[in-house]
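Dear Dr. L.,

I hope this message finds you well. Following up on our conversation about the binding site, I have prepared a predicted three-dimensional model of the protein together with NAP. For your records, I am including the exact sequence and ligand specification that went into the calculation, followed by the structure tokens. Please feel free to forward this to your student if that is useful.
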Amino acid sequence: MNTEAVSAHLARRAAVIGWPLGHSISPAFQQAAFDAVGLPVTYRAVPVAPDGLEAFVASLKHPTDNGPEWLGVNVTIPHKQAVANLVDDVTEEAQQIGAVNTVICTNGRLIGHNTDAIGFLRAMLDRDIDPVGMSAIVLGAGGAARAVAVGLLRHGVTELAIANRSPERAESLCWTLQDKFPRVAVKPLPLDAGVLRTRLAKATLLVNTTSVGMRGGPDPDGSPVPVDALSERHIVYDLVYNPQITPLLAGALAVRASVVEGLPMLVHQGAASFAQWTAVNPPLDVMFAAARRAIGLVS
Ligand code: NAP
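The resulting structure of the complex is given below.
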């Protein structure tokens, strides 16, 4: 952890980087957190094109613009894997997930870390939902699915199925995970209504990590599974955070299933990055309030 930044009270900067960045709400809740604990840090959204990534990461160590030193950055699509090859060290968590969502600048070194899995789990545990012993289905096989699957496998699910529109991506992710977690059965499935209906009859936890249901995404009004396959005994977690209640979650609420929305994961992964950068307890209430305000502004 970066205690140097806290004790020195020197002005620092932090950012979220991605391409295209679109409208990120990370600056709203991270800046609110720095302000609330009285740290002189400025947090911005910085679009970084893929061909500028290497130079940008180098500038985290050696700023060329006379600006303040960097505390760290959050990393989003499409840079999470590429950044792992550009930092000095990668934590075990980030190695397991195969992606970096947080860079920590400390003592002249860049450490690549990943807080997505812990953010995902904390949002569940906040609702008193513990995945230990559950049979789970993860929808999607992109970057978020990797973090979710690692979080679930580390946290004691007994069975994991990964269903994806492009079946080869689900298969490849399952092979990688099965190799790392040989004691749990990890099985690929097609994203097919009939197959998912059958599997939901025995699974408890359903996690959507596809972009289906996302405002402005490929299928904003859709649900990745038929909602009539859900029942009261299911726990349905949707990583999509805008809107807060997606068509999938609306269907789950209609049958009195337990639900977890995507916004708490977003705030918790950001809070875990904040804690790594500063060694200060993140002011969660402030961060949640700022995130909810920011989502309201973009909806
Ligand atoms: P990604 O790597 O681009 O993966 C996107 C996934 O969505 C892939 O599995 C893709 O399937 C699937 N998909 C896209 N359009 C689809 C469609 N029309 N029908 C079925 N499947 C479709 O993106 P990501 O980083 O994993 O993010 C995925 C979602 O999670 C986004 O909505 C993102 O905002 C959200 N997310 C939330 C948090 C949070 O903290 N709450 C964190 C990370 C991500 P194919 O492989 O077939 O293309």
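In brief: The CA atoms of residues 232 and 257 lie 4 Å apart.

With kind regards,
A. P.
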